[in-house]
Design brief:
mainly alpha, Arc Repressor Mutant, subunit A, 2 domains, three-stranded antiparallel beta sheet, 7 helices, 3 strands, about 10% strand
Length: about 150
């Protein structure tokens, strides 16, 4: 069992590296890094989200997200403003330049799809299975600490 090629984690990790490597030249043309692209995807779906909402969608904490958003704001793609109703919350919204970037990014998913050489059904099934795996792993990551507290009680 302790062989590298038998490890699910390595298969996921190395595939993730290959995917990120595929995206790099596609995103370089747009001036985006992969994490910035993910932020833009979320904001293109729904503009004007709080940093917390963005973090939930991307599975990132605000400590990771804030420096990323600051660089994106400096590039002119988005704005960050304190919410009027609650100044503890920061709302992230696209600028006209950020919305315009969407048109340039339209070809990225198509280019990636071609590179996978998978059918639409295969991609859909794989994505669903990975989402399910992530959910199960997330639940399991919480359970051991809960079990540990029960034993101590």
């Amino acid at each position: 069992m302790l062989r590298l090629d038998n490890q699910l984690c390595f298969a996921l990790y190395s595939t993730s590296l290959a995917m990120t490597k595929l995206y790099k030249p596609l995103l370089d043309r747009l001036g985006l890094t992969y994490p910035q692209y993910l932020v833009m995807l979320v904001l293109w779906e729904q503009d004007a989200l709080t940093v917390g909402d963005l973090g939930e969608r991307l599975f990132l904490d605000s400590g990771t997200l804030t420096p990323l958003l600051k660089r994106m704001e400096a590039a002119g793609w988005l704005t960050r403003e304190r919410a009027k109703e609650d100044e503890r919350r920061v709302v992230v919204a696209l600028t006209a330049e950020g919305r315009k970037l969407r048109r340039s990014a339209i070809s990225v998913p198509q280019d990636v799809s071609c590179a996978t050489q998978c059918t639409l059904d295969e991609v859909t099934e794989l994505r669903q299975r990975l989402h399910g795996l992530r959910q199960r792993l997330s639940l399991h990551a919480v359970e051991p600490s809960v079990r540990g507290r029960r034993k101590a009680a």
